[in-house]
Amino acid sequence: MRDGAANPTGQPRRVLVTGGAGFIGSHLVERLLARGDSVVVVDDLSTGTRANLPISDRALTFIEADLREWLRPASRVEEEFHEIYHMAAAVGVELVISDPIGSIETNTEQTSALLRYAADGSFGRPAVLIASSSEVYGKSERVPFHEDDDVVYGPTTATRWSYACSKALDEYLALAHHRAEAGAGGFGVVVARLFNTVGPRQVGRYGMVLPRFVIAALAGEPLRVFGDGEQVRCFCDVRDVSRALIDLVGTPTAHGRIYNVGSEEAISIADLARTVVDVLGSSSDIEFVPYDKAYGPGFEDLRRRVPHLGRLRQAIDFEPEHELKSTILAVAEGMGAAGAAR
Ligand SMILES: NC(=O)c1ccc[n+]([C@@H]2O[C@H](COP(=O)([O-])OP(=O)(O)OC[C@H]3O[C@@H](n4cnc5c(N)ncnc54)[C@H](O)[C@@H]3O)[C@@H](O)[C@H]2O)c1
């Protein structure tokens, strides 16, 4: 386990984590604090929560603010950061479908403002990680997905593709800034295309599948699988993902590039439901719900979403350490009820 490059100054690194009170952001914060960094979190708590953070840790500064507001010159704290992890976003298909305007604006405006902030130069020359998503591949059927593959989207009348497009725009901005700034001795940007990330602190209310299944299994209620359940995904534990993100930022040769981050272990959603029931010893049934009932008419889902991880392995020697079954148990434990369910 490397957790980024060594810090040559011997001083604590100053690190900004946007969206640090969220699911993945809070695991990053935990790891950065354990590394000895001084961490600033900016989060509006729209989907994250203070309870995800060790608020009493003196190396952590928590700022509750909309990132776009905080980044305005009049309100931001003018300080130097060595690393920036941009995790703040509107996340999840359900959230994007229920509030498309807010989601598109949140995702693109924040990233644009953050990259301009990093490019300013008055606040040091940070290494910046932009969290993107496997959604960027759209409905491409060429699996496993390679970072330089073509992307394929549905029509703009289908709201679900707006998330993919907003993340793709973030990537264009990130790479353009990298090209513009890196040569001028500016900052380095790395883009992480995250595949399904799972683990403790993820919540089910925005449509994330594993916490929904675990909650249902613990309550003895049916696990609701959308469609025929044969759609295939790869789930990676958030503790592996957060380690990979820190290592990517700490690897200057990785900057200016896009990396798939996730697991190559493929599982159908129906099998995921069966595994959750089995691992938690639940008596729940599995119920299949047509897509149009779950998301409204015309919803398009993807049959297989599997990353190619060759580039990531080459850059940071990445192998996930946590198996899906142990992650399911950790998720249940995080919900405070695994003892009863096991
Ligand atoms: N969880 C996954 O499986 C997954 C998959 C692909 C990509 N990602 C990406 O990873 C990142 C983190 O996702 P997550 O799963 O931790 O989601 P999350 O919702 O738990 O975290 C997002 C955080 O951003 C904050 N936020 C949102 N808008 C904000 C704003 N305007 N100002 C300040 N804070 C704001 C939220 O309060 C929340 O704490 C996102 O960029 C997401 O697109 C996640």
Task: Supply the CATH architecture of the domain at 14-197 and 236-263 and 309-319.
Answer: 3-Layer(aba) Sandwich
Spatial shape: globular
Small-molecule components bound: nicotinamide-adenine-dinucleotide
Classified in CATH, the superfamily of the domain at 14-197 and 236-263 and 309-319 is: NAD(P)-binding Rossmann-like Domain
Could you tell me the radius of gyration in angstroms? 20 Å
The biggest sheet amounts to: 7 strands, parallel
Number of helices: 12
Strand tally is 13
Query: What's the SSE pattern?
Result: EHEEHEHHEHEEHEEEHEEHEHHHH
Residue runs with pLDDT of under 50 for 5 or more positions: 337-342
Q: Using the coordinates above, name the CATH class of the domain at 14-197 and 236-263 and 309-319.
A: Alpha Beta
Percentage of residues assigned to helices: 25-40%
Please state roughly what percent of the residues sit in beta strands, choosing from under 5%, 5-15%, 15-25%, 25-35%, 35-45% or over 45%.
15-25%
